Amino acid sequence: MPDYDVLCIGNAIVDIIAQCEEEFLETNGIIKGAMNLIDTRRAELLYSRMGPAIETSGGSAGNTAAGVASFGGRAAFFGKVSNDTLGEIYAHDMHAQGVAFDTRPLNGEPPTARSMIFVTPDGERSMNTYLGACVELGPEDVEADKASGAAVTYFEGYLWDPPRAKEAFR
User: Fold this and answer.
1) Which partner from 38, 56, 112, 169 sits 20 to 30 angstroms from 127, CA to CA?
2) What is the average pLDDT across 33-55?
3) What pLDDT does 78 receive?
4) How many CB atoms lie under 10 A from the CB of residue 114?
5) What are the distances in angstroms from CA 132 to CA 6, 42, 46, 88?
6) Residue 130 · residue 42 · CB < 8 Å
7) Per-residue pLDDT, 13
8) Are 135 and 109 in contact (CB under 8 A)?
9) How far from 106 is each of 10, 80, 110, CA to CA, in Å?
10) Which domain holds residue 36?
11) Contact criterion met (CB below 8 Å) for 103 and 57
């Protein structure tokens, strides 16, 4: 019998969800309803301007692992965070949901990935995503015994681009 029903490998992204008015989007040059990849400077600026927010683990593969665990399945996740507050939030949430998440955090830069999600009164979401540490996932982060001990392995499609992530898949 495998150790895990599903092993997920993907981008470890903290979702930061805040309500906002349309004026906030306009003032900050955010395209309503769009998803934009942003750099460190823009991520820090938008985060500093956000109102109260919910910060929770996210990302396609992370959400898949959490879903498997919520239905009683045994799930594991490989994804890279940094050794910072958002990285701690990510790890806490995954563990609290019953997901095995033991990838060693990155010490230093870049910071943990985040998707700042601004929700307007009509319910439309506008996403600004900074990939940060998650693009540093590499072969040293994938534990062979866990990878071989899963009935199913789920690879997030976004990881087919970064060269180090491709190495990790091998």
Assistant:
1) 169
2) 95
3) 94
4) 26
5) 25, 12, 15, 15
6) yes
7) 96
8) no
9) 15, 7, 8
10) 4-169
11) no
Question: How do residues 118-144 score in pLDDT, each as one tens digit?
Answer: 999 999 999 999 999 998 988 888 887
> Domain holding 85: CATH number?
3.40.1190.20
Split into its structural domains, the chain has a count of 1
Residue 47 has pLDDT above 70, yes or no: yes
The SS3 call for residue 111 is: coil
Whole-angstrom distance, CA of residue 65 vs CA of residue 8: 6
Select the more confidently predicted residue: 170 or 67. 67
Residue with tokens 């001990």: 149
**pLDDT tens profile 90-106:** 999 999 999 999 899 99
